Amino acid sequence: MKAPVELTAVERWRLLLGEAAEGSLQTGSGNGPAYGMDRALAWLYGREGSGDTLDRHGGDAPSQLSVPEWINEIHELFPKEAIERLERDAIERYGIDEVVTNPEVLERATPNPALLEAVLRTKHLMNPQVLALARQLVAKVVKELIEKLAKQVQRSFSGSRRRQQLSRQGSWNQFAARETLRRNLKNYDTERRRLIIERPMFYVNHRRTLEPWQILLLVDQSGSMVSSVIHSAVTAACLSGLPGIRTHLIAFDTEIVDLSAQVDDAVEVLMNAQLGGGTDIGKAVRYAADRIEAPRRAIVVIISDFYEGGSPHVLIDTVRSLRAQGTIVLGLAALDDKADAAYDRELAGKLVELGAHVGAMTPGQLAAWIAEKLK
What we know:
Elements: H1 9-17, H2 22-25, H3 33-45, H4 67-77, H5 80-93, H6 103-108, H7 113-122, H8 128-157, E1 161-167, H9 177-184, E2 188-189, E3 194-195, E4 202-205, E5 213-220, H10 226-240, E6 245-252, E7 256-258, H11 266-272, H12 281-289, E8 298-303, H13 312-324, E9 328-335, H14 345-353, E10 357-361, H15 363-373
Parallel strand pairs: 5-6, 5-8, 8-9, 9-10
Antiparallel strand pairs: 1-4, 2-3, 6-7
Helix pairs in contact: 1-3, 3-4, 7-8, 8-10, 8-11, 8-15, 10-11, 12-13
């Protein structure tokens, strides 16, 4: 672990206020860690336009840092949390896509969801060498997301111990001590002052046994839904490993891409995703409806902002038919860690009137919701 950079109070104020405070604070010559930090901040935030934004320039001339040099500098000078914020602002706030299309940069970049989103937006611009590095970054972020979500999914779907059900056979961690003592008190040897256990008892662990269910995740690929696309792929991968559940993953814009064959490989799903384009939700829901085998054991999850580019009537009519046949329909305006939603409330409201559930969830909440419906 690198040693943290020590700054004086004056240097901290200089970083906050920028060049405008140089005359008042008199921080000295343009070298040292504080100068390097100010230069890195100026390279990024100095591109702000006029207005209330503080003027940020690191010296008498504009900084000439390249993207790889900037990445190297922030990794040497800033703590991990600050690095992730700077990389996220470079991508999301200023659209510096070179952060994820330059091989040198990708090798140094800290894997995080913001970089993953940028990779998905720019992978079509990458040459094979950069794409291979980007895939490694995607794999690292996806692994962390899956490890986190898998625990929540396991908790939602795992069976609970029913203490009233006992058995004479079981493993040591199922041993029912109190019941064993109660049922063997008659065997107490008064002379030897010892309890003789003739009938050890064990709790029976029951897991929920599910009739086969179909979970159909329909994911809007429009550019505004990139975070939900990521979490949908991760959620589908976690659900696909559960017994009694057949998971379908269907991506859509104005066209439909059925990714169900790759559902257990979230990295492959994301690398094949095509973000952008229009939106035809009704077409996607109708495609899913045609693949339902047992209507009363199917859940259709529509992950979209519900700004329909196709015919709203097709969507409404298809959802009406799904509900009439007993299929559960869930509309998610967002599926990410924050569950922040911006969506067409008028169209979503019409789906609610038909019996659909509409809202926003984190992946863990979705897993718990599905588990509850499958009881």
